Amino acid sequence: xxxxxxxxxxTERLVHTAVGKVMSQHGLPARELRDDDKLNATLGLSSLDLxxxxxxxELTFGADPFQSxxxxxxxxxxxxxxxxxxxxxxxxxxxxxxxxxxxxAQAASERRRQRRGARE
Length: 120
What we know:
Blueprint: H1 8-25, H2 47-61, H3 78-89, H4 101-119
């Protein structure tokens, strides 16, 4: 149960701060983050870095969107990461007819899982 509510801007700020902290711990150069920055390819974060990032953000927000809202494998960009945490606090974060990158990534991830299952 969430005991605190974060608005959209605060959520984005906290996620960006956490990403910057992980980058700093690895000696990666500080930079202004953009929604389309890929966590791995653009920012150089490893899967272990992402695990640390999710842990830090769970402590910050008091919840983990990857337990039930969003599969972690569908998050590849800073914008998708912010979107996952926004969903914890705001069901209306995006208009109903707006493109939903997380939903698209989720569907793509499910299709990949189904294809892998069919091959085995």
